[in-house]
Each structure stands twice: as structure tokens, then as C-alpha cells.
Amino acid sequence: MEHLKNLIRTIPDFPKPGIMFRDLTTLFLHPAGFKESVIAMAHEFRDAKVDMVAGIESRGFIVAAPIALELGVGFVPMRKAGKLPGEKLGVEYTLEYGTDRLEVHSNALRKGMRVLVVDDLIATGGTMRAACDLVEQTGAEVAGVACLVELTDLKGRELLQDYSCFRLIEFAGE
């Protein structure tokens, strides 16, 4: 997947000094690369009996929705607090600088459903873990987690040991 990795722009010192920001928008701008990424990610879960794909706000939506289409299943957005109307379930999680909250419509996932949880990138793993906890809160089962990019130095996978975890591209110490 080196050719796809090369489509991702790295911006040094953004959003603050010392951070190497992995800008996935340059991959999304490349139709063949974006399509190949989606198909490769979906392929990993083709035999996992996925009933629904959940995407994490906001860049996770960009990847999760086409994966759902590729798998022939529905897509459910996991939103930040206050963005969904109607009845919802939520889970709070810790960030390095405070807390946040993910929510999903209370009728979007049902007991027994197998849900693939997708985000664009796994760093520390906190957001993805919160999304998995939210899926389980609904009674559904996490069929797996997937991301385009994993920043392996941040060891986010350690929070996801309970799940089948797939990443298409990794950045480590770069």
C-alpha cells in the first residue's frame, strides 16, 4: 500500500509544533487511490457478516459510507454531542485535553447486529474505543474496527485489543 501512503500529505508542526499531521484529503482527491482504499478496507470484512457500518464524525463518514455501499449494508453516523435530533444514546470518553461525547440514534443499531466501526485514522485509540463501547451499549456486536491510517507510535491499538482491528496504512516514527 506504499503507493496509497504516498498520496497522503504530511504537514509538519500542525496544529502545533512537533505534530506531523497526516492530511488524508490529498488521498480523497485522488479518485483511483480513494476507490482502491475503500475496496481494500471493505474486502477485509467481506466475510465478517457485517450488518451495518458505523462511521465516526467527521472524517470517518468519508470512509465509512462508501465501505457500507461496497459491503451492501447500511451506514449509521456516530456524531458528537448535540448533533442528532430525537432519542439517542451516548458515551463520554477522555481526550488528552478533556472529554468528548459520541452519540447515535437509539433506534439505529439493534441487539444482535454486527457492526463494523470505521474512522479515518487511529491515533491514541480513545475515540475508536468509545465508538465500540457505544455499539455494545445498543446491544449490537462489534464485527471489527477499520481505519485508513494508524499512527502506530501512539499505541491506540492497545485500547482495541478486544476487536479485530484493520488498518490500511501505517505511519510509525516518520
Topology:
Elements: H1 2-5, E1 9-12, E2 20-23, H2 25-28, H3 31-44, E3 52-56, H4 59-71, E4 74-80, E5 88-95, E6 98-105, E7 114-122, H5 126-137, E8 141-151, E9 165-171
Parallel strand pairs: 3-4, 3-7, 7-8, 8-9
Antiparallel strand pairs: 1-2, 4-6, 5-6
Helix pairs in contact: 3-4
Verbal overview:
The chain is an alpha/beta fold. The chain has a single domain (47-171), classed as Rossmann fold, CATH 3.40.50. 27% of the residues lie in helices and 36% in strands. The protein has five helices and nine strands. The protein has helices at 2-5, 25-28, 31-44, 59-71, 126-137, and strands spanning 9-12, 20-23, 52-56, 74-80, 88-95, 98-105, 114-122, 141-151, 165-171. It has a seven-stranded mixed sheet with strand order 5-6-4-3-7-8-9, sandwiched between helices. A two-stranded antiparallel sheet has the order 1-2. A hairpin with a 2-residue loop joins β5 (88-95) and β6. α3 packs across α4. The longest helix has 14 residues, at 31-44. It starts with a helix and ends with a strand. The model has no long low-confidence stretch (mean pLDDT 96).
